# Entry
Amino acid sequence: MAAPVRLEVENLAWGPPGRPPVVSGVSFALAPGGRLAVVGANGAGKSSLLRCLYRVNRPRSGTVRLDGDDLWSLAPRLAARRVAAVLQETPPDFPFTVREMVEAGRTPHAASLFAGDASAAVVAEAMARMEIAHLAGRRFATLSGGEKQRTLIARALAQEPGLLVLDEPTNHLDIRHRLEAIRLLKGLDLTIVATLHDLDFAADMADAALVLDEGRPAAFGPVRETLQPDLIRRSFGVEAEVTSWRGGLRFAYSLPEDKA
Amino acid sequence: MARADRRSAGVGVALRFAAVAGCGLLLIAAAMAASLMLGAARIPQAEIVAIVLERFGLAGPGASTPGRAAIVWELRAPRAVLAAIVGAGLGMVGAAMQSATRNPLADPHLLGVAAGAAFGANLAILHVGDAFGPATTPLFAFLGALGATLTVLAVSRATGAGSADRLILTGVAVAFVVTACANMLILFADQRSAANVVFWTLGGFGASDWSTVPVPALALVLGGAFFVAKARDLNALAMGDETAATLGVEVERARLAHMVVGAFVTGVMVSVSGMIGFVGLMTPHAARLLLGGDNRLVLPASALIGALALVLADMAARTVIAPDDMPVGVVTGIVGGLVFVALLGRRP
# Structure
């Protein structure tokens, strides 16, 4: 496994061609092994920001640096060896097995058509890590939501990245699988950036939070200090009560207009 | 798929690749041997074997009469070989196109290939005649396919349509225009020669001789080498555009390359065989039902299944209304459709 990278984002802006920017003025830095939760209301630009980190959206201005190297001046294959992503994109009904899905993670490393032993070992380790080795021959489409998510994370791990980007990794998972996903992510020795709708899980998973509000950063800092009722009211338009619970945070919400 | 899954669990891709290739080549060899025996002139098996061995310099001459040797070697053999090459090309291109566009209904004739080839063939058959000898129709068909594909690419570039869906829609739009023009050629032509157009359009190998073999063979080898070398990229593209990008694939460029190479290979195949539907659409699905989704296996398997299917279809085409040939496109349509329905029934 590659070493976790230092991620530095400076004054990043992106928007579709010919339109006003969807995200702008985003700056933050993560130390190697840091875990960042990107939160914000629907349409705040979370996914657009993430796409800049996994090289789908080319920033209009600003830079993304991995250990000091500009992400967008790397060759695509080299970039894919340093940044992996777990996306919400649903694969179509081509009958890939779990092993084939995870093996695809070796694409940026592949020198020949057939994998060498070293590559096969990486795939096997990624599957063991995500506890899906017993599913290797199953068709991906027949898996449960939790198993699918673990397979996609295993594929990302097979890339041996230093930065892992996840778009709503707990979506469509039941309570137990969410908790398990969070624990798995916390156990990885990687720099992690994830969008999370659920602030409870954001606080569980991350040590830093970036709050986006209409494409602009509303706050960035340690989770505990950042996710405060004031900020939640401004960014999400809800009243929030924040309590400490078993070392994490728990949030209760109400609509401001319902306030008695 | 439980059986295939268990098989795949322990066995490496390279080993399965070899197994697939071995089985496929054996079946195709058997089908081609059967094809050599089939025909109006009844020639004993031993004599056919002797004729083939003689051609490869493995046996002395004199085992057969020159007339019978010509029937086997100059008429039946190139026909079987060409059917195998065209089937392999269509099957493989179909598999590549489906993965590259992430569309299980994609077909080798996407990007206007079918319409362009028809236009070129109509022009040759109805208005040009044999100006360049017997190669006139194939040449025009290929140039038509090439022209239509280039038009699709130019239009998609002009409209900024980079996604798979937009590219396919552009192909459909251009195909409609080109097909209308091809029909206009029929309208303004001598109606007696219009029957030849129908015959060409339905596809067949009746006019094959050894001189028609090298160009499609070369297209198959070059196209096959390209697709198999890029099989990992095709897998990534089949998993989604953004996923492919995160795996280091330059999505739009890679997709375009696959579709253009596919269109060229298809253009060559169509030019020698006419329009043969269903093989390119169906064989990749059959390959995936047997082997799963990995294009390192699906591409060669689709080629082999396609070759086998067309050799058998051509045999059927020669038999059903013997001594006349039925257009092989009719056979692939009917048989292919029924086989496909049967395969769907097996699907869990």
Remarks:
- The CA atoms of residues 120 and 140 of chain B lie 5 Å apart.
